[in-house]
Task: inverse folding
């Protein structure tokens, strides 16, 4: 890589000046409440596809693989997403039904990592999702699957201009959700 290109990459604009503040002592008890608030905030910025996220799954050889998907809904089953049953992700989820979802909301300097167990929501829910897609022609698609990622861990990150990013980690245990600030460095 040329020195010019390296300098160009390092001089690109970073976070916006007016970042929100995350107070770790003021967060809700349930992480989905914070997740919904942050998704609503991202929608309010007018950013395109604020419901897009990166889904990482684990392959047969143990290697992670990732792709961008769309969050279709959020309910007691978790985060809904859909795809083709013959896709690589579907094969990986059938073998190892765990995944991590990563949202990055650039205009707000916010990132959320969500890890959990993935379940197939069944034929009726899958066909209902298929029928709501813009390309729907009236024909069902038996290859279409709607899944839900049921979270067991969340990590919320609010970037700060001084790069002392503030994070809150939630974990689900037998007694419900607990949260704390991670002890490992944020960057
Ligand atoms: C913004 C964006 C949104 C996408 N949304 C979906 C989606 O909701 N479902 C889907 O199957 N693929 C979606 N894709 C395509 C996936 O990223 C991916 O290429 C495809 O699902 C195949 O992934 P796999 O081979 O890892 O299974 C989207 C791509 C982009 C860029």
Result:
């Amino acid at each position: 890589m040329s020195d010019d290109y390296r300098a160009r990459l390092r001089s690109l604009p970073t976070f916006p000046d007016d970042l929100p503040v995350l107070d770790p002592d003021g967060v809700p008890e349930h992480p989905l409440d914070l997740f919904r608030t942050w998704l609503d905030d991202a929608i309010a910025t007018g950013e395109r596809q604020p419901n897009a996220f990166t889904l990482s799954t684990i392959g047969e050889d143990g290697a992670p693989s990732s792709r961008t998907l769309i969050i279709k809904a959020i309910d007691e089953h978790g985060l809904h997403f859909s795809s083709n049953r013959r896709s690589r992700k579907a094969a990986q989820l059938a073998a190892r039904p765990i995944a991590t979802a990563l949202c990055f909301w650039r205009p707000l300097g916010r990132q959320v990592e969500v890890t959990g167990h993935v379940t197939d929501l069944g034929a009726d829910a899958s066909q209902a999702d298929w029928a709501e897609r813009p390309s729907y022609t009236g024909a069902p698609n038996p290859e279409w699957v709607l899944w839900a990622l049921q979270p067991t861990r969340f990590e919320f990150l609010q970037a700060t201009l001084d790069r002392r990013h503030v994070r809150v980690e939630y974990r689900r245990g037998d007694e419900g959700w607990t949260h704390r600030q991670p002890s490992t460095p944020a960057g």
